[in-house]
Write the structure tokens for this entry.
Amino acid sequence: MFNRGTLKVFNKIFGAQFSIFFFRMDKLVELMGLEKKENMDKKSRRKFGSHFTSIEIFETYIFPQIKNDLDKYIWVDLFAGEGNLVLPILKHIPLEKREIYFRNRIFLFDIQENMVQKCIKNAQLYGISENTAKGNIIVRDNLEDYPKFLLRKKLPVFHITNPPYLYLGYIRKQKDTQKYLKLFNAQNNSYQDLYQLALMNDLHNGIENLIYIIPSNFLFGASVSNKFRKDFLLHYTIYKVVIFETKVFEFTGTNICITFLKKKHIPKEEIITFQGIKIKQGNKFLEKEYRLDPKNYYRAGSIFADFLNAYQTKKPLEVNYYLLKKEVLENRGPFEIQAIDANQYANNNYKKLLLRVNKELKEKIKNNILYVRTLDSGRYEGRVGLGIIEDDFNVSAIYVSGNTYRTHPIQIFFKPIISIELQLIIQKYFNYILEDFRKKTDSEFLTTYKYSQALYTRKYLGLTQTRKLIETFPFNSLTPNEVEILERYISNDKFDNLTSFLINLKERQK
């Protein structure tokens, strides 16, 4: 089914692109009108979290999975947009039977009136009369109020959809989206995105078959997805996933996946295995089997988490983050420390400043030379990992004058104080293990950042992952000779030797 001829990069999802410059006055007026429409569309996308899907995605990836079941279900999209995830079914129904098939088996909804009108027109293109189309294509807010009349139909519901994506943090900050906050109360108060609420609504209403186009952080995300996956996958199993690391939606950088789900007969915590295909840049693809373990919140790429748990030392280093304004103000003194301000970034550089601190804070800063880069830059030399503050910023400290952000460079403070030499070894150790697991797992244990034109899929390294990886380093067990052995394994890329070495050290600690 998935061959090189069918794996396409969908760069023209939204129809014709307006790229011609018009020089006549009437064309300039037309262009101004289009620009106004584009601004309105942008506001609408942000307000509703909607990103519209191409027919090509349906034909290539979804229809082959459902083509033998067209008479078994009613086909529903609760967030239908233009209808491209269900209406193309009609191409595979004889023309003389389409009207009655549509009337009995296809129901489409959207919260936006203009989308419903487009959907009705698209249905007419498949030969459906306007009156019939209007009967089954309805303006409705299905996040707030599930259409339970569908559950009373003779045939079961099969829900295929590209639901709205709006992260809770964004919803809180934007006036137009704060109306959604009420949806995250009660049974949904621990979830983080509208698409998660859409899935939970299907769960609460007993929908057995789902095909969802959702952010790939459904599989790979940590804090934003752990609780949700644990709750949802108690009830559903995944039998197939198509993961896109190419741009699918024109107006968002979110990496997405098509997730094929079936409800379990009995809720059960169990390992879920399924075949996945990853569509990569350059029209390349990777097929692999995924194994999601409830012990790791069903998160893909869990072999890294297994390593962190298995190799944590008995007495690990204590790791703290951020040099905060509050600490600097409480420790003012005569000693000058050069720093960058992580909250002041312009023209590709952080603002530099002088901090005046007491001796105690000066020593603390000078004795901790490392920082963590949590976000891939897109360049190979800018991948996530530990860096040396002096080398990368030509200062001694990374100061946080305002709010802390996980995507900024973050200074690390160790307890107890360790030598500079040992910190440099920790840096090599940390970055080597991180890169080794990125090769083994195609970076899947990291959280996917937004799509870009980078040579690789940009990832985010969590601060908990950072701390736990540092905690596997046996800082208080190494003799000088063992330090040399460890460095040799790293420089010669001997991962198996390194892990055996760590096991022996851990046994010695008992």
Notes: The radius of gyration is 27 Å. The chain is about 35% helix and 20% strand. Residues 1-42, 44-52 have pLDDT under 50 and may be disordered.
